[in-house]
Amino acid sequence: MESRLKNKLRRFYRIIKFRMGNKPLDFEEDTLPWIDRSDADIDSFVRQFETPKNFPYDLGKLLRDWRDQGCVILENALPVEWLDGLWQEADEVVDNNEKYSVKSLVYQFNDGKETPVKDVPKEKLKGVGSRLLDYHNSSVGAKKILTHPHLATFLQAVFNERTAVFQSTIFKYGSQQGMHQDFPWVVLKIASHLVAAWIPLEDVSPDAGPVVYYQGSHRLPKFNFGDGILFSGHDVVFTPADFSRYLEKICARNGIEKTVLLLKKGDAMFWHAALVHSGSRINKPELTRKSLVCHYSTVRSYPKHRFEECEKSLASRHNDITIYANPTNLAEEDIMTAGKDWK
């Protein structure tokens, strides 16, 4: 009891000391992707950018939405038969998990540690909070989906430099995550060089715990954990719960209301590194929200796989997007091959 009180007092002292010297923080201007900079000229960029003839969207409008709202939805971007095939693959991995070393993260089972699926009880893999991690490394089809020309064109326009895809997850049920932004947790050399994508693998029901996002919130002042805008986890002043409360308050203060995202299978949503979003509560436990989520960055900011100990990772290019092989599981790279036949 005494040590707990001392810890509370120590934290209270650190918070007071921090707030007395607190200064607003943000991404450094000279590190920003071109579109986030104050002098970004979207019209000039679009005139010079080589947009594929079969790109079915207004690139200028997409880029303006990205700049102003921090998110973009591409409707009917992906073949639904590809998405169905991907989920069939994921089901195979879960149903026969003893055969695979694909990494998983199962909340309330392995305490946030990445664990091979063969070491996780099947009933846990099928439950709420279970995710397959970096599934694109094992799946030819997932690589095709995440680098589809419609997605690749938009990403190349946003970054305007070589792009890499990384840290994908595939899951069955809504995440029910609290309000957050991605950049404090996804470690990159350049924090602002981050785009997240959510691809629903089925039509989303409002009772299945849909994604909630806050348009324009990417422009709000960044939260300072006490040693910067990134959560180091070591000796920080504030906790993830403090971060979530800050986001809730600052969105309310700026009149930014939540938008519930009810996408259809075949759609894709991109959001900015600093867009505030969350996973809402699952109202009907029997409903699923099958999803594929991943992150993109520049090769300059993410030059190799996060588990790679050498200077460079084995890499392949798909529609000019770089994918690094997982050095901890090379034996299962592209082991799921159904996607080879997708046209």
Short key terms for the protein model shown above:
dioxygenase, 3-stranded antiparallel sheet, Jelly Rolls
Overall pLDDT confidence:
91
Domain count? 1
The CATH architecture can be named as Sandwich
Global shape:
globular
How much strand? 15-25%
What's the CATH topology label?
A: Jelly Rolls
CATH superfamily: q2cbj1_9rhob like domain
Number of helices: 9
**Contiguous runs where pLDDT drops below 50 for at least 5 residues:** none
Helix content: 25-40%
* Termini gap: 64 Å
The total of beta strands comes to: 13
Radius of gyration in whole Å, from Cα? 20 Å
Secondary-structure element series: HHHEHEEHEHHHEEEHEEEEEE
Determine the structural class based on helices, strands and strand pairing. Answer: alpha+beta
| Oligomer kind | single chain
How many strands, what sense, and barrel or not for the largest sheet? 10 strands, mixed
GO molecular function, one term: iron ion binding
Organism: Larkinella terrae
Keywords: Dioxygenase, Oxidoreductase
Protein name: Phytanoyl-CoA dioxygenase
3D architecture notes:
This protein is an alpha+beta fold and 343 residues long. 27% of the residues lie in helices and 17% in strands. The chain has one domain (32-220, 256-341): q2cbj1_9rhob like domain (Jelly Rolls), CATH 2.60.120. Strand 12 and strand 13 (321-324) form a beta hairpin. The mean pLDDT is 91. Keywords: Dioxygenase, Oxidoreductase.
